[in-house]
Specification:
eight-stranded mixed beta sheet, binds nicotinamide-adenine-dinucleotide, alpha/beta, six-stranded parallel beta sheet, 18% strand, 480 residues, 16 helices, globular
Length: 480
């Protein structure tokens, strides 16, 4: 049984989609595991005037897909309380503070507070300022702020947001969520590297031809057209998720697996991103927007709800990224993310060169780390399951079931928050470097009119994404 933790969670946006789809199920699993038991309370805040009883009903409904034990779900829901809240109303924060103190007494929660921003990003700063001015932070316990993406839309807005948050919460109290860092395969990369010394030895520009990171989705924007119009694939997927995945596989070997040591090497890696000159954006980055499919059955992006009929927002990005550090100088990192691709597939493909034979690894070997879909948590060597491939340079994990029953990303991240462990969260220093890189691409794109739509739904994206690799003798490993 896990060690029990104590805290009062204040979930801003407690009536919303993220809270119900991800947070409450994750908290429930921690309850089932005994990590949350008697000494916790959850206050959901949102605009609507809900009663505690109604809120609890919505929480129980959010658990129906994962359990049918009504008794346990009802007992869990007794820890939930609702506070109607408008982000700009100081009185509401005072009421919130009093409710949190009362529940802290009732459940003996150790004066610990987790402030969770499951609310639109434009409110993050306002809420944080009120937490300070109305004195919500406690003495004698911890205060931890959890922030969802997006963290800004460029370096300038991210800096402004960070300044407003840091006036209330120092960096060591801030937990910026990138849910890919909660996924099992990503969390295991450090251990896979540590436990396979030959693989680690080969992980540099001398032996690696190129590294590919793909986050492909088969769906379109669905009902999120309005949000997507303000974002696009570059901001929505590359700046955060893809960069963080690259960080996990390409960072230098940390001295130990502590948050401090890991973030040191990750920050150094991102600081060495070779920011593109305007004239290079065209050759190094490709953008696309989906059209209907070859039968005309699917909606083109421009026909989706809440999308401008002349929208120039990209639903697909492929790019060639380089780092200037000693480990990776000269190695291309090819990244891509797109909607309406043939399948959902999140993966890292490491393509070794011929020299790797000097280490006893077959020349031109490809190692693929499969992150999603769920049944694909695995490692492939030249397309064959790593255990069946019977190669000595990747033997860890030794058990095929190792990736089964992985914790859901949010469950795993909330465990880290309760433990005060920052290792799987993004730091401000890292974000500054990745935003700087992304801004250079975005600024150039914004200065030019794209020729959209330029790929059919259900395909691998625009042809130019293939040319990006072919011009230097490479090709995408995942190619439908
Ligand atoms: P949502 O629209 O479903 O919920 C927003 C919540 O904010 C609601 O509870 C609403 O009542 C509350 N709210 C709105 N205006 C308010 C105000 N003036 N005062 C007080 N409360 C107010 O949004 P969501 O999809 O749950 O997203 C929440 C956050 O999580 C956003 O920052 C989003 O970018 C991020 N996020 C969501 C997902 C997801 O899967 N839904 C994934 C990643 C990140």
């Amino acid at each position: 049984m896990a060690t029990e933790k104590s805290a009062v969670f204040i979930i801003f946006g407690g009536s919303g989609d993220l809270a119900h789809r991800k947070l409450y199920p994750a908290l429930y699993r921690l309850y089932q595991a005994g990590m949350l038991k008697d000494h916790f309370a959850v206050i959901g805040t949102a605009r609507r005037p809900w009663s505690d009883e109604y809120f609890r009903e919505t929480v129980i409904t959010s658990l129906e897909d994962i359990d049918d034990n009504k008794e346990e779900m009802t007992a869990f829901a007794q820890h939930f309380f609702y506070q109607s809240h408008n982000v700009n109303d100081s009185e509401h924060y005072i009421a919130l503070k009093e409710l949190a103190a009362k529940l802290d007494d009732k459940f003996d929660a150790g004066h610990n507070r987790v402030y969770y921003m499951a609310i639109a990003p434009r409110f993050f700063g306002t809420v944080a300022e009120h937490i300070k001015s109305e004195g919500l932070k406690t003495e004698g316990g911890y205060n931890r702020l959890v922030i969802e993406k997006p963290f800004g839309r460029d370096l300038a807005s991210a800096t402004e947001l960070n300044d407003s948050l840091s006036r209330v919460f120092p960096e060591d109290e801030v937990y910026r969520i990138d849910h890919y860092l909660g996924k099992k395969m990503i969390q295991e990369i450090s251990k896979i590297r540590l436990n396979n010394p030959k693989f680690e030895e080969a992980l540099n520009s001398k032996y690696v031809s190129n590294i590919q990171v793909t986050l492909g989705e088969s769906l379109g924007v669905e009902d999120r057209g309005g949000y997507y119009e303000t974002s696009g694939a570059l901001r929505d997927m590359i700046q955060n998720h893809i960069m963080q995945i690259i960080g996990s596989i390409a960072m230098d070997k940390p001295e130990e697996l502590s948050a401090e040591a890991v973030h040191k090497v990750k920050t150094d890696l991102f600081a060495s991103l070779k920011v593109l000159q305007p004239e290079d954006v065209k050759t190094e980055f490709v953008r696309g927007q989906y059209d209907t499919d070859n039968l005309g059955d699917q909606k083109a992006y421009r026909d989706e709800d809440n999308v401008d009929e002349n929208s120039n927002i990209e639903t697909y990005v492929a790019g060639r990224i380089e780092f200037s550090d000693d480990r990776w100088n000269g190695t291309p990192f090819y990244v891509r993310s797109g909607k309406r691709m043939p399948a959902k597939s999140s993966r890292i493909d490491i393509v070794f060169n011929e020299k790797v034979a000097d280490l006893g690894i077959k020349a031109n070997t490809t190692v693929s780390l499969l992150i999603e879909p769920e049944d694909g948590h695995s490692i492939l060597i030249n397309g064959i399951d790593y255990l069946e491939a019977n190669q000595d340079f990747i033997k860890f994990p030794e058990d095929k079931t190792y990736f089964d029953n992985a914790r859901e990303a949010y469950e795993s991240l909330i465990i880290d928050i309760l433990a005060g462990d920052h290792v799987h969260f993004t730091l401000w220093d890292e974000l500054q470097s990745t935003w700087k890189y992304i801004d250079a691409v975005r600024e150039q794109w914004d200065a030019e009119e794209p020729d959209f739509p330029n790929y059919l739904s259900g395909t691998m994206g625009p042809e130019a994404a293939d040319t990006l690799l072919e011009r230097e003798g490479n090709s995408w490993v995942w190619d439908d």
